[in-house]
Specification:
The protein is mainly beta. It is 11% helix and 43% strand. It has a 6-stranded antiparallel beta barrel. The longest helix has 8 residues, at 8-15. This is Pyridoxamine 5'-phosphate oxidase family protein.
């Protein structure tokens, strides 16, 4: 059966539930993609914590970020893939999420980036 194409709104709903903290493949300005752990906001924007390491912030701030998020089902069908593009900027204090997973190191959001997602598209297996 063919895959179902997903709208931006449908993609946001998928990537933020059931878990908001998930691995995401991110490419900054077309560079080699790397897997980063991101926190998904209600609007679909992604927060990428960097702790005290500002290298990611220097490399990404003001640049285009392409993302790929995939979730596979243990019992097909049911998996999905979401891709998107947005603009990265340094985190500010107001960006820090109120609740974080317990396994996250203290100060994880001292530095990092927010990827303001301009567009998300995706497909879901049937």
């Amino acid at each position: 059966m063919p895959a179902k194409t997903l709208s931006h709104v449908e993609c946001v709903k998928l990537i933020r539930s059931p878990e908001r903290y998930r691995p995401v493949l991110v490419s900054i300005d077309g560079q080699q993609p790397v897997t980063l752990t991101c926190f998904v906001l209600d609007d679909g924007d992604l927060l990428v914590p960097a702790g005290r390491d500002r290298a990611l912030v220097r490399r990404a701030a003001g640049r285009t970020a392409s993302v790929n998020i995939t979730q596979r089902s243990l019992h097909p069908p049911g998996g999905w893939t979401v891709t998107g593009i947005g603009l990265a900027r340094p985190l500010v204090a107001a960006d820090r999420p109120d609740s974080l997973p317990r396994n996250l190191a203290p100060g994880a959001f001292d530095a990092g980036i927010r990827i303001a997602m301009a567009r998300l598209t995706g497909c879901r297996e049937h």
